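User: I'm putting together a small comparison set for a docking exercise, and I want a reference complex before I start. The sequence is below, and the ligand is S-adenosylmethionine. Could you produce the 3D structure with the ligand included, as structure tokens?
Assistant: Of course. I'll restate your input first, then give the structure tokens for the complex.
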Amino acid sequence: MMAMLGPAEIRDLAELLGVTPTKKLGQNFVIDANTVRRIVKAGGVRAGEHVVEIGPGLGSLTLGLLEAGASVTAVEIDGRLAEQLPKTVELMQPGAALTVVHEDALRVDALDGDPVRLVANLPYNVSVPVLLHFLEHFPSLQSGVVMVQAEVGHRLAAAPGSKVYGSPSVKAAWYGDWRLAGNVSRQVFWPVPNVDSVLVAFERRTDQLGTEDERLATFALVDAAFQQRRKMLRQSLSSVFGDSARASTALEAGGVPPTERGEQLTVHDFLRVARDGWSEGA
Ligand code: SAM
């Protein structure tokens, strides 16, 4: 019995379930076993590990993770797909260690066991919020690899000063280091999406950057800074601190020139302003 899903199996399964892939749920299914194995390899998945997959869909990647010997918890919002997945797995890899959670991934904040890796072909419309949500709620997650829209992947992996550096870049950096791990052809999906995809890998940082209050304060600054990314920080942060004079005081307390723009600041810079500037400027 073949252990992976190809184009014919994916279409047959969709037809069997009466599933017409929806754009709203970002349903573009991988139909290429080589791509699946590439993702599993890029994720560094080892036998016996507990891996969480978000959006297993018809099961292409799930089967790849199980083939590598991982035990998989798969979180799927679509009831028809969540119900079918254990049956598909039982047919193709009997006895494999799979738990399916039928839920919106954004609402999941506890799972049985502590997953150490996150591997997913993420639904494009919610990829960043879902990623940040899981990193926040599952400190056991040490590393992972996700397939996302190319533009989003470049943002996640961007360094300060880059044109695409933005709020997702800084927030992702709060949790760890991110790097691009390769391009993925549109042709490996059904239906073929109208955007390019990339793989992005992350490793969680070993040191916790700050407390929960400091994280919230830092993220509030990041949001304000990038809402008006072309403005100097003393202006873009004026609404947060009350006015631009107070914003300047806060920035200086954090060691950041008030005339700087958000796109120049590392996550550490934002954190210093949140930590040292809040009491000064607010
Ligand atoms: N992993 C499968 C693959 O590679 O073929 C499917 C990937 S498809 C890009 C995204 C999957 O995420 C779909 O199965 C979709 O139903 C599911 N999904 C969308 N939004 C979700 C959410 N908020 N929580 C959990 N799953 C979601």
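The chain has a mean pLDDT of 95. The pocket of S-adenosylmethionine is lined by residues 25-30, 54-57, 60-61, 75-78, 81, 104-106, 121, 123, 126 (CB under 6 Å).
User: Thanks, that's exactly what I needed.
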